[in-house]
Amino acid sequence: MKKRILTGITTTGTPHIGNYLGAIKPAINLASDFDESFYFLADYHAIIKNSDSNAVGQSVEDIALAWLSCGLDTNKSFFYRQSDVPEILELSWILSCVTAKGLMNRSHAYKSATSMNTDEEDKGITMGLFSYPVLMAADILMFNATHVPVGNDQIQHIEMTRDIAGRFNHIYKKTFELPEAIIQDKNNTVPGIDGRKMSKSYKNIIPLLSSEKQLKKSILKIVTNSLEPGDPKDTKDCTIHSLYTYFASKDEVDELTNAYKEGIGWGDAKNMLFDVINRDIAPIRNKYETLSSDKTLINDLLSDGASKVRISAKEMISNLRDSIGIKIIS
Ligand code: ADP
Ligand code: TRP
């Protein structure tokens, strides 16, 4: 059996250091262990919570450029936009028809949305949000991915995908592999400038594709306590120290830890952090600048990627239609 890795990023917002460390970089590094790799831009997922059409469009471009700038090789991987593969939506409907509503009721995303409602449980909840795990299952099952690298928050969706795949296999015929989640590191939650998980929802991000000047500005905004230079500082629960460990060597981390004990000022600590982050992402920024100056490149690469994957997507759909009884009348 072929080992296939597949992962997607929802196209809302600008890619940040958390996406880079927690999703893009590890997923690209994994490609060499697999027979085939699929990376895609989940733009139909983006409209679940975002009705700003300009923002969704811009984000597709930014996130595509982030993958490419971080080293995704389109000659060795399939790279495409979800909406360019309409077969995924057809599969999503077919899967909806074997998915128990009760399974969707248990979805964390749905439950956390309803928990905020006091009077009417489903107030403001769309069918898109409710059945979002089915669309995600379609993304994965369409290409029979065997492994799906995701963050902690997505584990439940992979379990649901297995459940849905199993139901289809049982009712019709064995068509789908049951995919496994690859969780990079359970504790790998990159903090944002306010100390909470870095997330576009909290507006606490350090952008990945910014200029050196903007990068410095974001780092200077990291919230610290009011200890003065000369006061010994604690590395525990410190955003600067925690971010530093992602980019620095062990010796460099030891050096910063010592400097904390000796009372380094927050400004100097931030400068040290800037240096290591900038060292790591400067090549990415350079590549981004080159790629973004070529205005047709992204469209060309994405449409080429979609043409490639649609060959197997069409085959899968024709197989499925046959299984469920939607056949050409002869
Ligand atoms: P955001 O939280 O900014 O909305 P997404 O939910 O779109 O980010 O996440 C896209 C990918 O990046 C997911 O695989 C997610 O696990 C990863 N990711 C996002 N934020 C972080 C973070 N702070 N630390 C580690 N990984 C992250
Ligand atoms: N839901 C995922 C997220 O928010 C993105 C995503 C959509 C995805 N479809 C996928 C990830 C399929 C892995 C596989 O992060």
What would you note in describing this structure?
53% of the residues lie in helices and 8% in strands. It has 330 residues and is mainly alpha-helical. A 3-stranded parallel sheet has the order 1-2-3. Helix 4 (87-96) packs parallel to helix 14, helix 8 (132-141) crosses helix 9 and helix 10 (212-220) runs antiparallel to helix 13. The mean pLDDT is 95. It binds adenosine-5'-diphosphate and tryptophan. The site of adenosine-5'-diphosphate has 17 residues, from strand 1 and helix 1.
Short description:
The protein is mostly helical and 330 residues long. The chain contains 14 helices and five strands. The radius of gyration is 22 Å and the shape is globular.
Overview features:
330 residues, mainly alpha, Rossmann fold, Tyrosyl-Transfer RNA Synthetase, 14 helices, 5 strands, binds adenosine-5'-diphosphate, binds tryptophan
- How many E strands? 5
Predict the CATH topology of the largest domain. Answer: Rossmann fold
- What structural class should be given to the helix and strand makeup? mainly alpha
Number of domains: 2
Record the SSE blueprint.
Layout: E1 4-10, H1 17-30, E2 36-42, H2 43-46, H3 53-69, E3 78-81, H4 87-96, H5 101-105, H6 108-115, H7 127-130, H8 132-141, E4 147-150, H9 155-171, E5 180-183, H10 212-220, H11 239-247, H12 250-261, H13 266-293, H14 297-324
Parallel strand pairs: 1-2, 2-3, 4-5
Helix pairs in contact: 3-13, 4-8, 4-14, 8-9, 10-13, 11-13
Bound molecules: adenosine-5'-diphosphate (ADP) and tryptophan.
